[in-house]
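Subject: for your reference before the review

Hello V.,

The reviewers asked for a structural picture of the protein, and I figured it would be easier to keep everything in one thread rather than splitting it across files. Below is the amino acid sequence we used in the manuscript, unchanged from the supplementary table.
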Amino acid sequence: MIMETMDLNINLPLNFNQVIDIIRQLPYNEKIKLSELLMQETKQQNEAGKILTHFASENVLAKEWLLPQEEEAWKDL
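And here is what came back from the structure prediction:
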């Protein structure tokens, strides 16, 4: 019987090693699904981090862009 993923909020007090032990007990196909899910989650978090870094940097860089020295350095381009 194949179980579909459900939106459940379950708080289990597990440490990292316990999670690893549980993963080791999974059948191969379930490990593949978990691996794909983790890759997707990691990619989404990485993309969100890039966007946030961009916005955080913009104000700092804008101060430099507005200096007269910057205008002078870029005037010929």
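For the response letter, the relevant points are probably these. The chain has a mean pLDDT of 80. DSSP finds three helices and no strands in the chain.

Happy to draft the paragraph if you're swamped.

O.
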